Structure formats: C-alpha cells, structure tokens
Amino acid sequence: MKIAVWFKNKIKSFDFFELGNSVILYYFFIFYLSSILFFVGIRGFLWETSDVYYKALFYLTIGLIFFAIGYYNRQTFSVVRRLPDFLKLKSEWDFKKVPWVFGVVFVLGLGIKILRIFGGAYSYWQQNSWLEKNSFYSLLGIFDWLSYVALIIAFISYFYFKKNNDARYHLWQKIAWGVFILEMIYALPSCNRTFVAMPIILYLIVRSYFSRITWRQIIIIAMGTVIILFPLGNACRNPKILSHYSLVEKPLAEKSIKNIENSLAYIKNAGNFTFNSIFSRIDQFAIFSRIIEMNEPFLYGKPLLNFFISLGPPRFIWTNKPIISGGGDFGHRSGLLAPDVKSTVGVTIIGDWYMNFGLAGIIFGMFFMGMLFRLIYEYFIKRTEISLSGVMIYSILWLNIIKGMEDWIAPVYAGLVKIFILLLIIHYFLIKREKELKTV
C-alpha cells in the first residue's frame, strides 16, 4: 500500500522539464519508439533485424544506462551544493527596469526577424542569399534567441504578478500572448517545424515552474502539437508528397457506395500521411544504425575539438574560419541524403561519441553528459529555488540541449556557451543591484 502511494505521488510530482527526465523521454522517443513499432508489426522505418540492428540497439541501451548513472550520481548533487551563487541567480528582478529590458530585447529580436525576411535567409527554400554570404551572418544564430528571451520575460512577468495578486499581470498577460502570437505568425510561413514548436515549449516550461499545469495537460498539448505540426510541415516543404497519398484526389461529395469507399480511403491515406510525417522525422535509430553499419575509423576527438574553433573569433574577424558542421558531408556519405539534396544530417549526440571513440566513447561520453545535465538543472532550478532569472536561462538552455540531441556535439555546445553569455548580460540588466536592495 505504501509503495502504491509513493509511486502515485512520484507520478503526480513528475517534472517533465527536469533536464534528465526530458533527455531520457526524448531519447526513448527518437531511438526506441521505431523499434517498438517494428516489433508490433508496423514496418517501414527500419530494415529487417540484423546484426547491425541488434548491435545498435545494445549500444543505445548502454548509452542510456550510463547517462542515467551520471545524472543520478549523488556526487553531482554535492558538487552543485558547494558552488557559490556567483551569478546572483537568486536576485530579485527590478520591475521598474524589466519593461525597458523587455522592450530593448523585443525590438532587437524583431529587427533580426525583419533582417532575415528581407535578407533572403528566412524560409526553407531561401539559400545562398546575400545575407548568408555576409561575414556577420554567423552572429544572427545567437541574436535569433532575443525574441524568445523577450517571450520568456513577458510570460515570467505575467505569471509572477498573477501569483502575487498584482494588477499588473493584466498588462503582462496581453504583452505575453501578443508576443506569442507574433512568433507564430512569423514561424508558420517558414515551413520550419522547430520555429513553430519553440514558443509553445517555452510557454510550457515557464508555466510549469510559475503556474499550475498538470503532466496530463503537457502531454495533450505536446501530442496535439506534434500531430498537427509534423504533417503540415511535411506538406508545406514537399507539396508534391500529397499526391503520393492521394489526399486531394478522392471525391467526397456524392452519396454512393463508391464514394463512401473513396471517403474511407481518403481518411486512411490522411492517417498514413500523418503517421509517416511524424515517425519518419523522429526516427533517429536509422541514423545511428547507419553509423554502425558504415564502420568507419574512429575520429579520436577531432570533431569535438571544433568546439574551440566555434568559440573562436567571429567570421568577420577570422575571415578563414572553418565551417564545422559537417552534416551535409555525412548525410551524402552515409546515403541518408540524395546527391542533389542540399541539407544536413546530425549524427545525434550518442552517434558523435561513438564516431570519436567507439563503445568507450558512448560509456564515458554519456556518463559525462549525465553529470553535466544534472549540474545545469540543479544550479539553475533546484539551487535557486526556481528564481526568475534561473528559469529564464534554464528555458533557453533546455531547448538547445534537447534540440541538440539530434545534432553534432561541438557546434551545439559552443553555441550554448555563446547564448549563455548573452543570457547573463540580460540577467544582470534585469536584477536589482546591491545598492538598490539596501535602500528597500
């Protein structure tokens, strides 16, 4: 009985946005879900089971186990508790300055969006624009986050004032939802599913820490977003794919046996299109299996050293700065991309560790990532007792880390360092100074 009550309380208090929980859930989603579907008879995403398949499944499981060991290692807890609050994350926000900081961040973020639109670097189809060829273009990737920071500041202010029964929450409610709607208007025509999903995720993170939301509501919103977003994004990017599923060729008007059959076929094909749009996109098991199958020589940390290149001077200073992503080369070399497709394929975080050091890389790399993620969660959320700046910084870090699980390690974590510096600057403008605290 006590075990049942304990288990029920654990489920009730489960934090979806605790970094370790999120990583494990997403890891399961992108690596194991396709295998489960395969074994229950839903084929199409994996080739027939083989030595490569079982080897990949074994390596993925080893990686998950050592990630969990690193994340739940009590040694990490003690390290974080001994760290001083040198970033002043527990400091209160000065709400006399918050509107000004929000305004500046919002206007700068809006300016970046306008620059992308008129610079030809906005949508999926726009490539090799004059803006992308500009040496300052690399900075846009960091400043793109300004609009999301503005969204977070607005929602934090709204929930903070509402929780404290401050009438100012009415104004911040309108501002927050206005910025949210603007983000969606900007994102939808781009056919970029990530652009559309990010404002929704950030809202859920902020609300989960400052307002009441159940894990059931989070699941419903997340599933609804995926079911709607992935098919629409697929159709938006590849309109011709609709004809493959005959979605626009089935008449629905006349009431006859034949047209009833056509209607049923229409519904079935729409379901197949939705299913394939979701699972063909999230199936990262196929990428990791291909890495195993290619059996290339280990790289022994060479791609990981690109982390320092990415942190080097920006391209307008270092004109010959190497391009470090490597995604397009791997995509074509592995056969995951057609020769005429100009796109990139991330090798996934565990794939990157394997390509560098093999099974040892998976064991020690995933263990290290587990400890790192625990440190981030403990320092910004638990240790600060859910402070305003802690949640602001953590939300952006969380989004980059989860999104980066499908990518290469070096560019993702070099980008995290740059974004973190930007967030710290904004944080210091938001908080009360020591002199201000003494006069209160």
What does this structure look like?
Helix 18 (388-403) packs antiparallel against helix 19 (409-430). The chain has helices at 2-12, 19-39, 51-71, 74-82, 98-119, 130-133, 140-143, 146-163, 169-187, 193-210, 215-237, 241-244, 257-282, 285-294, 306-310, 327-334, 349-382, 388-403, 409-430, 434-439. The chain is mainly α and 440 residues long. The relative contact order is 0.15. Mean pLDDT is 81; it is low at 247-267.
Q: Calculate the terminal CA-CA distance, rounded to whole Å.
A: 51 Å
The number of helices is 20
Return the string of H and E elements.
HHHHHHHHHHHHHHHHHHHH
Helix content: 55-70%
Sheet-strand content, in percent, reads under 5%
Q: What does the overall shape look like?
A: globular
User: Class by helix and strand content?
Assistant: mainly alpha
Total number of β-strand segments? 0
- Low-pLDDT windows of residues: 247-267
Task: Report a brief summary of the structure.
The protein is mainly alpha-helical and 440 residues long. It is 68% helix and 0% strand.
Keywords:
single chain, 440 residues, mainly alpha, 20 helices
Break the fold down into its secondary structure elements and pairings.
Elements: H1 2-12, H2 19-39, H3 51-71, H4 74-82, H5 98-119, H6 130-133, H7 140-143, H8 146-163, H9 169-187, H10 193-210, H11 215-237, H12 241-244, H13 257-282, H14 285-294, H15 306-310, H16 327-334, H17 349-382, H18 388-403, H19 409-430, H20 434-439
